[in-house]
Amino acid sequence: MDEPQYIQFVQRKLNEKIDKLPVLEKPKSSEQPRAPKFLEKLKPITTHDGFSVVFQCKVEGYPRPQITWFRQTHIIKESIDFQMYYTEENVATLVISEVFPEDAGTFTCVAKNSAGFASSTAELTVEGPLSSHGSDRTHSISRKSLSRTSSLADILEGMPPVFAKKPKTQSVPEETDVTIDAVLAAIPEPDIKWYRNGKKVTTKENITISTTSENYIYTTTIKITKIKKKQEGRYKIVAKNSEGHATAEFTLRVRTSEKEAPEIVEPLQSTTIRKGETATLTTTIVGNPEPAIQWFKNDKPLEALSPRRNGDTYTVIIKDATTSDTGEYTVKANNSLGSAITSAFLTVQDNAEPPLFVKRFEEQNIPEKTPLILRAKVTGNPIPEVTWLLNNQPLESSERVRILYDLENIELTIKETNSELDSGIYKCVATNSMGRASHGAPVNVEVDTVKFTKKLQKSYKNFERETIELECETSHSVRTKWWYNGTEISGMDHRVVIHDGRTHKLIIKNVSKNDEGNYKCTVKNQKTETIVEVDQRKLEFVKKLQDLEITEKDNAILEVEITSDTADVVWLKDGVPITDIDDKFETEKDRGVRKLLIRSTSIHDEGEYSCQLVDEECKADVTVIELPPEIITPLQDKTVTKGEKAVFEIELSKGDALAKWYKDGKEIQFSEHIQLAIDGKTQKLKIYKSDRDDQGTYTCKVGKQSSSATLTVNIPSCEWIKPLPEETVVPINTDAEFEVELSKEDAEVTWWKKDTKIESSSRYTITKSKTYRKLVVHQVTMEDQYEYTCTVEKYSLKTSSKLKVGDRPSPPRGPLEVSGMTAQSFTIQWQPPENDGNSEILEYIIESKDMKLKRDFKKIGATKGSITDFAVSELKKDHGYKFKIYARNAVGISDPYCPDETVIAGSRINKFDDFVPSCIAPPSPPLNLTIKDLTSRSATLTWEPPENDGGSEITGYVIEKKLEFMPKWEKVYTLEAFTLEYTLENLKEKSDYIFRVYAENAIGLSAPAQTDVVQMRSLATVPSPPTPPLEIRTIGPNAIVVEWGIPESDGGAPLLGYNIAIKDTKKTMWMEIGKTPKGVQKFTIRDLQEDHEYLIRIFARNEIGLSGPLESDEPFKVLPSGDADQDDFREVTSEREPTSRSSETTTSWLRENSMDADIKSYAKGKLLRKDEYFFRIWCYATKLFK
Q1: Biological process (GO) annotations (predicted)?
Q2: Where are the domains of the chain?
C-alpha cells in the first residue's frame, strides 16, 4: 500500500467510524438544531521524542456537540497517557503526556450532534531517534500494549501494514556488525520479507533476520555480522496482510579503504512548510578520500547557516522559517576522484492554513422525488481540493447529480431524489497540504409507507465468546435503528450495525452474559423484536501463565485467558493477594483476557505470581535480570582556595552500587582529611582544609564506568594567620573587638556590618598595626547583633564573626547527686544553668572544701560545657566535703552553685534501695587488668574479680576507653559478672589508647582498674583465603551443603570464623547469607530456586578483616531434588542448632523477616524489660563485590 492508497484507506475507515458515533442528546422540539462548526481548528505540531504535546480546537453547534478524538483510524481512549478536556466554552483539548515515535500521524477531532458532524485534522511529527521509552525496546512492554492497542483491536476489523519507524540510509565500515530494524503496525499479522537490489534476503551465513511482536506492533530486524562490501545496496522491506501491503526502502553503503568518487546515497528532498516552522534538509554522501562538502542556496554559497554532520550525513536546520528562506538548496561534494551534486526546493508559505468549513449543511428529511440541495463554504491556503462522499463512497457529477465549487462556495444538487439511491450520510471533504477537514450530515429521502418484509426470529441463542447475527429486511432502502433494552445501539462497540440496501443486520461479536436481553429494530412506526440468550461456558483457563524473564526497569505483563468475559480473577505474589493496584501494578480485563502489568520492574518484583479462577490456579515465576549500576550525574571540576572544603558529588543509578574513589590513579584511603558521605544514590567525596597536595585528578569507578574531575587549589599570596572567630560575645554596653592577622603588612581590609560597609566614626574605631587589623564597636546594644565581616578584595579573602550581646550565665542548678562512692572517691552531678547568657557554656569549674580542715575552697577540676558530672578522687575517708560549681561562657563566669549538703567520703550513701543494709558498699577495683592480645586495630583485656565485693554480689563489669590526648572517656560495653575477658575491635591504627574496667554491684561502680598507655602498633593482616576444594552437595529440596578447608595463615591475628556469600548468575550483586565460627568449615544454604545457577564465595576473617575469597570454579545449578536425598536433608535440618549469626547452618532470614538485600531498617519485637540489647550491622561490600 503506497501513501495515496493509505490516505484513502484511513479516510474511508475514519468516515465509517464517524457514521457509527452515537448521538446522545436530541434537540428540543421548539429549537432548530445546528450542525457542528469549528471556530478554531487543530494545528500541525512538530515535537521531539519524549516531549508532551497539546492539541486544541473550539466548536459550536446545537445540541452541544459530542467530541471524539481519533489517531489515524482508531478512537483514542482517555488514560494517564491521553488526557481529554471539553470546557463549557466548547474548547476541546487532547494532551499527550509523553510522545512516542509511534504516535506520529494524523489526529482528528470529530464534533457530532443530531444535525450532523464536523471534523478537523492535523499532523503530529515526532523528530529524533527512538528513545528508550519507545518501541525500539522490543523486549519491554510500553503503554501501547494496554489501553491504546486494545482500543485499536476493538474497533478495527483489519488494518494494512503501516510503518511507524523506517530504517534510514547509512554508511558503515567493512567488517563491522550492523543491526537495522523497522517497526510497523498491522491487523492481521503481516508476512514480512527483506530484499537487496530486488533479490530476497534470508537468514544465512552472516545474516540473521528476526521479527518480534507486541499486540499488533511488529519489529523486524536484520543483523549482519562483519559486513562485506558486496552486501551493500538498496534494501527493501515488504509487509503484506489481507488488508494490504507496505514497503520501506533504504540504502546501505559499506566503506572500505579503496578510493572512490563522491556518491549521493540519500539525496535532498523538496519540502513545503508554513512560516515559523522548522525546516530540515538532509543528505547522505560517501567517498574516499572524504569529499569536501559545500552548501548553496539559489547557486550562492550558504553562509548564514552552519551545516551539521553526523558520519556521512549532512544536515541544515532552518528554525522559524520565513518566506525569504524559500529557494533551491544544493549540496556539492568533491574529492580528487570526482564530484557529486544534489538539489531540492524549500517552499515556505506565508499564512498557510488547513481547510476550515465556515458554512455547512444540516440534516434533511425530504419527500421522495423532490430536489436535494446541500451548500457549504470552505477556506484554506493553499486552496483546498473538495470531494463528496455518500455512505463513504465517492460521489461524482452525473446527469442526476451536479457538483459546483468556485474555490470557496460548494453546492451539491440532486434534481429528483430516490429513496433507494439518495438516502444516507453525505460528506464533504476538503484537503490541502496543511491538513484536512470534513463535514457531514444525514439525508433521509422519505417514502409514505415502509414495512418489515422479513422480521427477526423470536429468539437467538449461543455460547459465550461466539457471534450472534440478527437480520431483518424492509420494503424500501431506509435507515433503521437498533435498540437494546430500550437504549439505542451506536455500533461503536463489539456490536456492529450494517445497512445494506433493504437488509439490516446487527452482529454481536464475542457475546457475553452482559449481552442478554431484548433487541428490536425500528423504522418509522414499525418494529420487530427478539430475545438474545447467552449460555455460559465452564470457567477454566484457555491460556495459562508463562514464566517471564524481564530486564530491570522494563514493564512486565502477565497474561491469562479464560472462558468467560465477565468472571473476575485474583492475582497473587508469593501466595499473597495483590491489593496495591497503583503506579506499580495495573490490571486489565479485556473480554476473556486478564492482564497484570508490573511497571518499572526491580529485583523486589521477583517471585512466584499466580492467578486464581474459582477452583483453578496457574502459576509462573518472574525473574528480573539486574542492570549494572550506572553514573547518572558525573563529577564536575572544582576550584577552591587553600583551607576551604572541596566536595565532589556523583549520582548513581543504584544506592547499593559499589563505587571506588581514586586520586591520580591511586585508590583513596579515607581519613579525617578525606571523607566519603553516601546519601541514597548520591555519593560525596569531601576534602577538608584543602592544600596544595590535594590538587589532582579524582576518579569514581562504578563497574565498568568511571567519571573524573580535577581539583585546583588556589594558594593565595596573602592569607589569614588569625581569622575572626565564629562568634564574638560581649556584655551589653561594653566594647566589642574584632581583630585579624594577615600574612602581608600592606594588605588593605574592608569591614562590613551585614551588607553595609563600616567607616570610622564615634561608634566604630578601625586601626591598623603591621599585620594586625582591628575593628572596635563601642557600647554595643541588642541592635548591634549582626554578622561582622572583614574582606581583602585584592586577594579574595573573607572572614566573618557573629556578634552576640550576652551576659554571664546564671549559676548551675541542683540537686547535687552523688554516685559511685568509695572510701576515697565519688562522682557528683548537677543541672545546667537556667540561662546561658546568650552564649554557649564553655566549661564548668568545680571547687571543694574539706570541712575538717580550716582551709578555703580550692579548684579541683573542670569539665567541658556539655558534661555535668565530675569524678572527685583522692579524698579522705569519713571527711565531709562541700562544693562550689561555676559555669563559664564567652562573657565570663557565673555566680557559684553552692549545695547545702556536706558529702562524707565513704559514708556508704545508697540512692537506689532504702532497704539495703548499711554494711554494703561499692566493690573494690578489678584485679590484674592486663592486655592479653594486641593487633594494630584490636586489644583483648583480661582481669580478675575485685578483692572485695562490698558486701553485695558483683553484677557486672563496665569497659571504657579513651585516646591518650582526649579528656573524655567513652563507655564501650557492659558485661555479665562471669565474663573476665573482652576484645575491643575497630580501634584506630597507630593510635595510643588507655582502657579501664569498673566492677559493679547493687550499690554502684567501683573505682576503675586502668591500663598504661597502649600503642596500637601490631603488624597483623587479614588471613589467607580458605583452602580448596570447595565441595558442594545437594541435601534436600532447594538446599545444599558447602564445605572447605582452613586458611594456610591467620594473618597474625586469631581466626574468628568464616563469611559465606552467594550470587545468582543472572544478577550482578553478591549477597552475604551467613557466618560460621572458627573451627566450623561447613554451611547449609536453603531456599535456592530450581534451574537457577549460583556462584559461592567463602571468606576467612580475623579482627583485621576478610581474606580473599575461595570461589566455586563454575556455577552450581540447582536441580529438582529426588527422594534419595530427603534423609540427608531431614538429618541436617533436624539437628540444626538454634539460629544465631555464628551458626553453621543458615536460616531463610531474608524471607522470614520480609527483607531483601538493600534493607535499610529492621524491627525486633518482644524485647524483655530492663534487659540490655546490642545490635550490630556488618558491611563487607568491598570484598563481596569484586
Answers
A1: sarcomere organization
A2: 34-127, 159-257, 266-350, 354-445, 452-526, 541-625, 631-714, 720-806, 813-905, 1020-1121
